[in-house]
Design brief:
Elements (H helix, E strand, L loop, with lengths): L4 H14 L3 H14 L3 E2 L13 E6 L3 E6 L8 E7 L4 E12 L2 E9 L12 E9 L8 E6 L33 E4 L5 H9 L6 E10 L4 E3 L5 E4 L2 H16 L6 E7 L16 H12 L4 H8 L3 E5 L2 E2 L22 E3 L10 H13 L5 E3 L11 H9 L2 E6 L1 E3 L6 E4 H16 L2
Parallel strand pairs: 1-2, 4-13, 4-14, 14-18, 15-19, 16-17
Antiparallel strand pairs: 2-3, 3-13, 5-6, 6-9, 7-8, 7-10, 11-12, 12-20, 16-18, 19-20
Helix pairs in contact: 1-4, 2-4, 4-9, 5-6
Length: 427
């Protein structure tokens, strides 16, 4: 997958458009790795791994792990981690609401979306559906993408909005429910069965989400920006995939992981807070003939980049930025630091990454929250706590984070790939 800059960015926009849920972004990531010669493994099987062998596995349909075995089985791991999920709306059980002639779906908020940004846009439904399998413990999973403009969340006319109501966050239960049609004769499972060409009685359960039908696009007088939903954090997923595929093999085993459920705390089997990832690392180590002590030694020789999007200074809200650390679009990847350790970054981590960047002609920026604002967090500190692996939190600067339509710089994406590739190949 050696591409030029234009091909990389075109591929990113296509990836964003196809990745309509965390299940689809994981499937698309798996296809990219498979097409690059990575061999699929299963989590619950014995592995026989070879030096410079390329492998990948999918965990619970929504976490992707790809790795290239290093030449030195005692060396530490070089890891880049990101997440496959984005904020939005999840469809509840028994979702159909019929009132005053309207058909609506009952939803709940997933993560922390900017609710107002979801209003008055064409939306549809995506996710996974479980249907009857050969046994009760082996249901079949099917991915669903209803590929048409299906529903919308209509806003209230300004004439009906009191002055004290304007600008307030909508009530998620009463004011942010999507409209899907008119009438009384509608059941969601009937639509799902028709889309998937399955018997409605075979549908057992599903995890379904709303998604925007608007396409990713370039914008700006010189095409310097791109705009799309789910840039946080599929921008980093795509960068990590491109970098591991194009990196030269090294003594260390190179790993890329895209976890699910970062937006809701990571406390799932496929999330960064589970025991799963350390088990994967251990299986990689043991399959190379290492013992338990060798594996522990590897952990403390390892280094991980936690890659999640960062905040750029906003031209309309300058006062929201730190006085001396103000990341700008298209001026390079951002190291995120926090005294309360919501980010895993410390001076050791900064030293390592600054040296790699300097050796490869890459400028880095720094992000700190204003001291009177509480910022976000990501997977870095979680992985460091659960595994003992040193972490640093980085990301590309962007605007409108958690909107249904986010904005980032094209040059930053290319610089991030260059930085990640250099990290995988560094000594």
């Amino acid at each position: 997958m050696i591409l030029n800059d234009k091909e990389i960015m075109d591929d990113l926009l296509g990836f964003l458009d196809k990745s309509v849920s965390m299940y689809h972004s994981t499937l698309n990531s798996a296809e990219i790795l498979k097409n690059a010669g990575f061999e699929k493994l299963e989590l619950a099987e014995k592995w026989n791994l070879k030096k410079q062998g390329k492998y990948y596995l999918v965990v619970n349909d929504s976490t992707i792990i790809g790795f290239v075995i290093g030449n030195d089985e005692k060396s530490g791991f070089k890891i880049i981690g990101a997440h496959t999920d984005s904020p939005g709306f999840k469809i509840k059980s028994n979702p159909v609401i019929k009132q005053f002639g309207y058909l609506q779906l009952n939803t709940e908020v997933y993560g922390g979306p900017i609710l107002q940004s979801w209003f008055d846009r064409p939306l549809s439904i995506s996710g996974r559906v479980f249907v009857k399998g050969q046994t009760s413990h082996t249901p079949e999973v099917k991915l669903l993408n209803i590929d048409k403009n299906l529903l919308t969340i209509p806003s209230l006319a300004i004439h009906m909005t009191g002055a004290d109501e304007r600008g307030k966050v909508p009530n998620a239960q009463t004011q942010a429910l999507p409209v899907i049609g008119l009438g009384e004769d509608f059941e969601l499972d009937e639509l799902i069965a028709q889309e998937l060409n399955v018997n409605i009685d075979d549908i057992l359960s599903h995890d379904l989400f709303l998604y925007s039908r608007e396409k990713a696009t370039f914008l700006g007088v010189n095409g310097e920006f791109y705009q799309s939903g789910k840039i946080d954090n599929l921008g980093m997923i795509h960068a990590g995939l491109v970098s591991i595929i194009n990196a030269e093999a090294s003594d260390s085993t190179q790993i890329f992981v895209g976890f699910d459920n970062e937006e809701i705390g990571s406390s799932t089997q496929q999330g960064a807070a589970s025991a799963m990832f350390k088990d994967v690392l251990k299986k990689i180590s043991l399959s190379q003939g290492n013992d338990e002590q060798d594996f522990i030694n590897q952990i403390y020789k390892s280094y991980m980049i936690s890659a999640d999007q960062a905040h750029a200074i906003h031209p309309n809200y300058i006062s929201k930025s730190d006085p001396t650390n103000r990341p700008k679009l298209n001026e390079g990847p951002v190291i995120k630091d926090s005294a309360r350790k919501s980010y895993a970054t410390d001076s050791f981590g900064r030293a390592v990454l600054f040296d790699i960047a300097k050796n490869n002609g890459i400028e880095l920026q720094m992000f700190h929250n204003r001291s009177d604002l509480r910022g976000g967090s990501t997977i870095g500190a979680i992985i460091e706590t659960n595994t003992g692996i040193r972490n640093i939190d980085i990301g590309n600067p962007m605007l409108a984070m958690h909107s249904i339509s986010e904005m980032a710089g094209t040059k930053d994406q290319l610089l991030m790939i260059k930085l990640m590739k250099a990290f995988y190949e560094s000594k």
